[in-house]
Amino acid sequence: MYNAGDAGQRSVTLCGGIPDTLSVLVVGLRTPTRAGSTAPASGSRRGCRCSGRPALDCDATDRAIALARTFGTRGRVLILPEDFGPKGDLNDWLRVGAKGDPGAFRSVLERALAASPTPWALQIERLPPDLAPWDLEDHPGVRDLLCELGHQGALSRDAHLRLLAERCGIALATLQEAARELLQGTDAEL
After folding, report:
1. What does the pLDDT look like over 18-29, one tens digit per residue?
2. Domain boundary, last residue among 58, 84, 118
């Protein structure tokens, strides 16, 4: 971990590579921690145990989602606009989006960090647009998603379930019941 001492900051950006880390450092933010695209999730989590809100850049979105989940409801995935570069990474944000202006980059980055979604919200957003409500139980990942949401506190759980309800056209109360049932079934297995 690079800059592991900054892990106790209010927010920490876990970058997938050296160029992204340097881009964040150039604007004077003290919070970047270089996880590396092949760093083990457990090592990244240990390094940021005390941080308030870790956000991961999404060069590898599936990996970022999985790693952000390990931080619980504090984990976020930093979504970068595609028009800022071919890979949509932080270095492209600085070079293309902010045209090399550190002040503009810092402003855009701070706004993006504040608005970065949870991994569950991103997973809900990435569900196929043609997924029929009656196919939710058979869709890979939806059952696990509901079970994970069942383990969250009421506010986070219901906020995510509301997103899923809007996305799939199912009543919030039905999704709450499904999450409770899956949670009870998982607890009974343990």
Report:
1. 777 778 788 777
2. 118
